[in-house]
Amino acid sequence: MELEELRVYNKSMEVAEIVWDYVSKWDYFSKDTVGKQLVRSVDSVSANLSEGFGRFHYKENKQFCYNSRGSLYESKTWIKKAQTRKLIDEETSEKLLSDLSDISVKLNNYIKTIGKTS
Predict the structure, then answer these.
(1) What CATH number does the domain containing 101 carry?
(2) pTM for this one?
(3) Which domain holds residue 47?
(4) Is 118 part of any domain?
(5) How far apart are the first and last CA of the chain?
(6) Which among 57, 64, 91 is positioned nearest to 9, based on CA atoms?
(7) Burial of 79 (C-beta count, 10 Å sphere; 0-12/13-18/19+)
(8) Of 29, 51, 62, 80, which shows the fewest CB atoms inside 10 Å?
(9) 94 vs 108: CA distance, rounded Å
């Protein structure tokens, strides 16, 4: 199996690009405070999946998936802050949070399969 075959990876990459498109349009102060944190956390979801996938031992892969899940929850917080601070509208916030919830389910299901042999 290749990394790019994982739906959780592909979905996390898609959401990261959507977030990037929004944040890149914000003013300097908003980008420098909330924006950088949001982009880093959402990018970290797929980055940790990648790093774990490339490890030789399933326990390391699981640990990086746990890191990915932590970044996912951090991303949810930054999206909520962005909405509260009127950087993104409610509809966009709800869509992004829904996407992250979908990723969370996929990630938890992926974690359950790591280390299991068929």
Answers:
(1) 1.20.1440.60
(2) 0.93
(3) 3-113
(4) no
(5) 14
(6) 64
(7) buried
(8) 29
(9) 21
